[in-house]
Amino acid sequence: MVQRHRRSYSSLIPTMLAGALLLSLCGAAAWGDSRTRLINIDTARLLEDGQWQYGVDFRTFGSADDEEYISGHIRCATHGYQLELLGSFAETATADTGRATLRYGGTNWEVRAKKRLVRGPKATLSAIAGLEFPNTPAQDEVHFALHVPLTIDRGSRTSGHIVPKFVFLDENTVSSLGLAVEHMISDRVTFMVELTPNIGGANTRDSRGELSDDSIWGVGLRWAPCEDKNWQIDVGLTNGKGQTSSFGIAPGILNSTAFYVAATCTR
What is the pLDDT along the chain (267 residues), one digit of tens a residue? Predict the structure, then answer.
């Protein structure tokens, strides 16, 4: 049995204001393509200075987790840094497993800075530092997150990604290792597959309500409908909840699967 509680969409107003601020800092730029993120994993790539990017991500879970998650992001590159504002949103709800009552959903904001550390002919290493502001049944205190993505290009069509991820929750530091491959099937279609095993800490609860851990996975296709690839549309399956650091390392309740669709525009 799932009980739902409505949330107020007035919380989206700060996103619009902060987004306008980021865009004003970056100014105008020519349109361009940048694959800074896959499904639940960030790549080591950065936007070029003066570029900005925005997007939305919708995930609908079935089975035990009858829940919908919406995520949005705004990214802007300036002076060698990529500034990011991310938000993930879901109605708070409870699920009765027969052994325990689990609460899930909620809202999570995150502000980030991304910096390229090393760039070689075939590999790029970056670091992402984030500060999260959650309002969920699991977390309600500000905490720090760190990602260290390594992107390795194998020719012009295939890339691999290795991403150590750390979320420093109160008395529960969650560490994981993201592994992903993306391959261009054609000039406009890219196949993506990723697996993020949990290495330390708890990122979910089991049917008894006890802290537990599960791996995060995703598989999808990315389509660029325009020749210049400014717009990108993703479709696929995943068990990850959203784009922020905490939602990106958390599986659906009882490890359920979501169908997701996302749209990104880079300018």
Answer: 444 443 444 444 454 445 444 444 444 433 334 689 999 999 999 999 999 999 999 999 876 556 789 999 999 999 999 999 999 998 887 777 777 787 888 999 999 999 999 999 999 999 999 999 999 888 889 999 999 999 999 988 999 999 999 999 888 899 999 999 999 999 999 999 999 999 999 888 887 878 888 999 999 999 998 877 788 999 999 999 999 999 999 888 777 899 999 999 998
Query: Per residue in 39-71, is it b (16+ CB within 10 Å) or e — as a string?
Result: bbbbbbbbbeeebbbbbebbbebeebbebebbb
Number of domains in the chain: 1
Q: Is 33 helix (H, G, I), strand (E, B) or coil?
A: coil
The CATH code of the domain that includes 51 is 2.40.160.40
pTM for the complete prediction?
A: 0.85
| φ, ψ for residue 10, nearest 5 deg | -65, -20
What residue numbers bound the domain in which 160 lies?
A: 2-266
How many other β-carbons are positioned within 10 Å of the β-carbon of residue 90? Answer: 23
Q: Cα separation of 196 and 239, whole Å? A: 11
